[in-house]
Amino acid sequence: MTDDPPVARIAPPSILAEPAPAAVLAALPGSRAVGGAVRDALAGRPVADVDVAAPFPPEEIAARLTAAGLRVHETGLAHGTVTAVLAREPKSQPVEVTSLRRDVVTDGRHAVVEWTTDWREDAARRDFTMNALSLSAAGELWDYFGGRADLEAGRVRFVGDPATRLAEDHLRALRYFRFQARYGRGEPDPAAVAAIRGAVPSLSRLSVERIWMELKRLLAAPDPAEAVALMEETGVLPAVLGPATLGAAGVLRALAAIGAPPDPMLRFDALLTHGAAEAARRLKASGEEVARLVARYRAGHDILPIQPAIATGGPDDDALRRLLAEQPRDRLTDAAWLRQAVNRAWGWQGPEDSAWDRFRARLAESPLPVFPLQGRDALALGMKPGPEMGRLLAETRRWWLEGGCTADSAACRHRLAGMMKAIHTETLPKT
């Protein structure tokens, strides 16, 4: 095996000295940390986990790790990847270990690979130059494609020809924007942007699950607005989400300007002028994620007509209790952030920022009203289970809401009993 000499020696990140990564690197002579651990160490960012590459086929990697006392899980053996943990530590940090590889066949979604001992060849198949760095346990740094300089300059650049990298894996078009949001500064790389624009038609071949994963990762960046603006400009965003994304970057900028929390799901809602829940469902988001978007939409529908009251210091206490009784507090808060941002982004008249702040503070401080009756209360009054009982309980709750959610259990039971009596009287035979 021949290789270029390291380009520098740096202080390795402390995570490489932790038990599991240290054991992996020691068990595999010539292995190196690769990818995010090296990139983030150079960028001065926290390193959450370690990926390791080694110049051995996967079976030999597994055998060497097992002999060194590590448990090996074959998490991606077809692609040369295993995951190692320390057998003696139940909560050992997992370390993903991959054989050096070269691509044999690629189709934009999957690759057939074979093993190599050539580090440069392995680095050449990676997406961005800043991800093609590798680091030994001793701090020796290899940089085959100028990734360190690109990282320092805030330049997200594909390894080699951008069109070729995109043809190998269409998802890289989306990954580019995530890395641009997290590491990019200044003007984006023109060659990368041109290649991505040309690759837009190929995005239809991506699985919706992979699109959803990348969108959430992008939207978790500290400030994804400019990357999303570039997605709009290149045609990528409407290609994966549809034409309802018009102006999405402006709403994201407005969310940041008003101090909204950096919540990926709130930001996803901001990408679409309508139909966020339907888009998430199409992308096979989790049931919990879709339910949250549905609840946020309903909360926004309830907030829309009370904007004039918010602007003048309202709504009154009764109206606020009705809101909190009908919608989850956190979804009402989300809806308030989003409505405020949409008003600002689109230049629509609405409450001042300070009025929205007061409204959210009241939402946070107000006790949650809870309807004081349950089915057992109706049974105790002599009702039989069935649709009629459900209808009368719903009618009682509607009366409770109209009164500002202030009636207590005794008053609600009295109301329910009165409706039962009225129905009973109406059904008695006339004499």
UniProtKB/TrEMBL annotation:
InterPro entries: Bact_CCA-adding_enz_type3_sf, NT_sf, PolA_pol_head_dom, PolyA_RNA-bd
GO biological process, one term: tRNA processing
GO MF annotation: an example: tRNA binding
Ranges in a coiled coil: none
Name assigned to this protein: CCA tRNA nucleotidyltransferase
Cofactor: Mg(2+)
Keyword tags: Magnesium, Metal-binding, Nucleotide-binding, Nucleotidyltransferase, RNA-binding, Transferase, tRNA processing
Every Poly A polymerase head domain range: 33-157
Origin superkingdom: Bacteria
Family: Belongs to the tRNA nucleotidyltransferase/poly(A) polymerase family.
UniProt KW Electron transport keyword: no
Gene3D superfamilies xrefs: Beta Polymerase, domain 2, cca-adding enzyme, domain 2
UniProt keyword Nucleotidyltransferase, yes or no: yes
Domain tRNA nucleotidyltransferase/poly(A) polymerase RNA and SrmB- binding: 189-241
